[in-house]
Specification:
124 residues; mainly alpha; 3 helical TM bundles of succinate and fumarate reductases; 0% strand; elongated
Length: 124
C-alpha cells in the first residue's frame, strides 16, 4: 500500500491557513459570481460601474482580502506541491523566495489596480 506523504505538518499553521483560505475563497467566489454574473450580466459591466463598486469601502475591502487570500492560497499550494514532488535543498529555498517575491509583487500590483478603480491617483 502506498504511503501518504505531505509537506504540510498535520494540523500545522500552513495546513490550517490553506483550509481557512479555501473556505474564504469559496464564499467570496460565490459572492463574485452572484453579483457579476447573475445579478449583473457580463455585457452590463462597465468601467463606471466598477468604479462605483470599488468606491464602496466594504466591496473594496472584500476585493483586497480576496486578492491577498487567493495569492497566499495559490503560492502556498504551489510551494507545497513542489515540496511533495521532492524539491529540497537550495532549489527549495530558491523556489520559496521566488514564490514569495512573485506573491508580493502580485499583491502590490493588485492593490494599485484596486485603488485606481476607486478613482484615486496611484503613482509610484
Amino acid at each position: 500500500m502506498a504511503e501518504r506523504y505531505s509537506s504540510f505538518e498535520p494540523k500545522g499553521t500552513r495546513w490550517f491557513l490553506q483550509r481557512i483560505t479555501a473556505g474564504f475563497l469559496i464564499v467570496v467566489l460565490a459572492f463574485h459570481f452572484m453579483l457579476l454574473h447573475f445579478v449583473n450580466h457580463a455585457y452590463e459591466i462597465t468601467f463606471m460601474g466598477t468604479q462605483a463598486r470599488m468606491s464602496q469601502i466594504g466591496y473594496f475591502a472584500t476585493m483586497v482580502l480576496f486578492l491577498g487570500t487567493a495569492t497566499f492560497h495559490g503560492v502556498n499550494g504551489v510551494y507545497n506541491a513542489l515540496v511533495n514532488q521532492g524539491l529540497s535543498g537550495t532549489r527549495k529555498t530558491a523556489v520559496k523566495y521566488t514564490l514569495v517575491g512573485a506573491g508580493l509583487l502580485l499583491t502590490v500590483q493588485g492593490i494599485r489596480v484596486a485603488l485606481a478603480m476607486t478613482g484615486m491617483n496611484v503613482t509610484l
